Amino acid sequence: MRKKLLSTAGMLFVLVIVLAAQEQSRIPSGIAIAFRTGSAAGLSEYLNSTVELVLPDKEDFYSKSVAEKILKDFFSRYRSREFVIRHQGARGDAQYAIANLETDKGKFRVYFLLKKVNGNPLIHQIRIEADNE
């Protein structure tokens, strides 16, 4: 009886650790909502003070306010229809996601990298590339 109780407690402990690790690597839902709705203002809530943007016509490091304006311009030219995160993961204090963005003018592959700043996950890099598949 005691072995069975210890075995069950051990499995519960492992399950709690696995679930906690998965929750830590989960991308904040507000980011997916902002991409899905084409909201640069929504994304700006998650932008670091400096962000690397790689877009079809721009590539550089920008301040948060400039990055928001560039993303607003992108979403006004390419109206978002659908956004689906295909893969996400974490390593150390960094999280990342690979997603597909469908717009009125084509499909894009989106990559973004988040790092914790003062305990909050903030976007440090966004790459939006044409998906030619």
Describe this structure as you would to a colleague:
By secondary structure, this protein is an alpha+beta fold. It has a single domain (28-130), classed as Nuclear Transport Factor 2, Chain: A (Roll). The chain has four helices and six strands. It has helices at residues 2-24, 29-37, 40-44, 64-77; strands at 47-55, 58-63, 80-91, 94-103, 106-117, 120-130. A six-stranded mixed β-sheet has the order 2-1-6-5-4-3, with helices on one face. The longest helix has 23 residues, at 2-24. Mean pLDDT is 87; it is low at 12-24.
Q: How is this structure best summarized?
A:
The protein is α+β, with helices and mostly antiparallel strands and 133 residues long. The chain has a single domain (28-130), classed as Nuclear Transport Factor 2, Chain: A (Roll). It has 4 helices and 6 strands.
Q: Can you tag this structure with a few keywords?
A:
single chain; 133 residues; alpha+beta; Nuclear Transport Factor 2, Chain: A; six-stranded mixed β-sheet; 4 helices; 6 strands
H-E string: HHHEEHEEEE
Helix content: 25-40%
List the uncertain runs.
12-24
Q: Order of strands in the sheet with the most strands?
A: 2-1-6-5-4-3
Number of strands: 6
CATH class: Alpha Beta
Q: What is the domain total for the residues?
A: 1
Q: Any guess at the CATH architecture?
A: Roll
Query: CATH topology, what is it called?
Result: Nuclear Transport Factor 2, Chain: A
Work out the helix count.
4
Helix-strand blueprint:
Layout: H1 2-24, H2 29-37, H3 40-44, E1 47-55, E2 58-63, H4 64-77, E3 80-91, E4 94-103, E5 106-117, E6 120-130
Parallel strand pairs: 1-6
Antiparallel strand pairs: 1-2, 3-4, 4-5, 5-6
